[in-house]
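Sample entry (259 residues):
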Amino acid sequence: MKLSAVFILLILSLDVAAFSMGDAINTAGRQRMLSQRITQAYILQGVQPDAERHQKVFARSILDFKKNHEKLSKFTGAQKIKAQLIKVQREWNAFELITRQPVSKESASELFKRSNSLLSATHTYVVQLQQLANHNSAELINIAGRQRMLSQRIAKNYAATLWGVSPEAAETALHEDLSEYSSRLNQLLESPLNTPQINSNLHKAKDHLSYASRGFEGNMKISEKRQIQVITGTTDLMLRNMNIITGQYAELLNAKKPQ
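Predicted structure, serialized as tokens:
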């Protein structure tokens, strides 16, 4: 075997070894979030068809989902729950078919429903990974990762309400998600495993939620176009901040031995 081939195999083996259980839970949790982010961006293309940002978010998120699924498929530490990952793949196949359709209220309504099925399958996989990890910090990764998802489901339900896609279901879910995000945030703040850096970022998340809530409650006297910018921008801040926090919890798991 040539030296270059040996070097490539060594790099690949190191890459697989570097992907730990904490990383797997974090990555699988991102799949939950992406199911909602893709749907949000798809609907917003219907609301603002000339907005290039929504098109970029949509395309990039689809690519990220596929890359993440490939990583999870290669993770040897989760062979016991491979059947659930196959279910995720089936749900994704059906979901992706709809994303390829031209944007319309009809296709957006179909994707809205499919996004909930894909979310359910990805969430089950995260929970099963958490059980395999068998450590308290694994639950924190799951909860923080779910906050990422909620930030994007909040935006998805806002966009669906705005465009009249499943309006009753979307509006009800929007208020439920805001309430869950707040209660889960308080749950994370109470964890004795938190580092000062984690607590600082969690308090930032409370500020982001407070600002976003003003938009949903109609307390901002701004145009619809500006409101879309404020709400999607703020929920993106919530996403980025919770992504950092989820990674911090993953580091806690990576540094500890299973209980």
